[in-house]
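Support request, please re-run this one:
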Amino acid sequence: MIPILIVLALLGGGTQFSFAQNVVRYHVTMKDVKYVYGAAEPVARLKSGDVLETNTVDAFGNAIQKPGDTLNLVKGDNPLTGPFYVEGAQPGDTLAVKILDLQVDGNQGVGALAPGFGALNPTNYTPMLNTSVPEKIWFYPIDHATNTATFKALDSNFSVKIPLHPFFGCIGVAPAGGEARSSIVPAEFGGNMDSPEASVGNTVYFPVNVAGALLYMGDGHAAMGDGEVAGTAIEVPLRARVQVSVIKGQKINWPRFENDDSIMTVGAYRPLDDALRIAFVELVGWIRQDYGLSEMDSYELLSKVAKIHLNEMVDPNYVVVASVEKKYLPAKKK
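Re-run finished. Output below.
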């Protein structure tokens, strides 16, 4: 642990808080990963203000490495690094996780079609009479110098470079009530949100449901299209640097994102329209509480200037992020 001093602005440039804090380093291997969000022995303990440097394996547990490898090699989906216990975090508080740096930890990414998975595939939720898509795997060479990955078509002579945008596909805390939830599921505790908003420069806020919050992360993505329609992003392991902070006595119901320009709220549910409703109800509440507009004024304003991001519609719950730029809001209440 290396003591450093850092100044953190919580909740979007409000009060400045100074923390004498540490850098905590943790390296995960496949023997240490978890496949659920829930109560488990912490792999490390952090204090509010600490910086965590860690790594994640990819969604396949780094098992798919070369042509000829199949999904049968995968031991479990979305292996997670953690949990990390944050001292002082108690139910009713909010955990803020500021994403300081994310780097792709390797020279290739993986994408795949899996029978029974994907937005255009028959699933248990959307049964159809036609047959499922076949298993196929693509490898994406990564050029760190140009910050791109290359898509190479399997059935034709075509390739194209894709800019990298590393982010956590999975990041979340332990659910309430002692429940354990699969690493595939996005919900009110975060989880498999597949949110490109979980990237450098953004802070993600989680409701604290258990003592210590128990933070997990994983499922690194190098890039992903809206909806993640085929079921995977460019799946990669990551090296991560994040800062955790406890906001005492502030209760939220669903994850939130924030950066210098915007506030963003998450809705995760099926059907898709209910995910959207959750996200917008949360955004109205945030504006009312922190910026002082009435509920109806907030509702009307969002109808004119809000943005919607469909993160994914392939998991057990779909994920929508609703956002508004701060330039459209009043000054934040002190």
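The domain at 2-111+162-260 is CATH 2.60.120.580 (Jelly Rolls). The helical segments are 272-291, 295-305.
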